Amino acid sequence: MSSLNILWFRYLAKTHEDLCTPECKNRDKFEVLRPADNHTLLQINMLSADDSGIYYCGIAFPDSKAPTSKTTGEGTLLVVRETKIYSKGAINIMVTISLLLFLYITAILAILKFFSKPKFKKSENEDLRGKQNVHAKETRDACQAIAKEIYKKKKRKQWPGHLANFGKRHVPS
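^ thats the sequence. predicted structure below, dont judge the formating
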């Protein structure tokens, strides 16, 4: 039996790239592993979004002229999405700006609340209570006036006639 070559290819959007045919072109990035006799793996080091593509494994028997001497697998789609990682300094700046913005908005709302006049009408209950208070005051004033008048009348009747006018200035006629 002839020697077996393991080949790895990557297909990108508009082109393909020979990765390991049979030796890897970029040994720092790609490495072929053979954990068992009938298995092979492609290890990709320092994975990034640029590594996205469809990866194919192929085998070739270079000494054979048979049509089945070269074959590939079905391909494996690899999609790498990068997430942005912010530094601690950038996070601290964002938190500080957010806090200052929150304090500014809170201060503006407090000022507006403090200096604005209420723009709502009194409820019907408050209007009714106000009318009742006015009516009660008028009734109280009337009762006090009647009480004063009765007191004055009683006071005049209790004292003899010449003392009823006591304290009043007497003007000779």
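The two ends are 163 Å apart (CA to CA).
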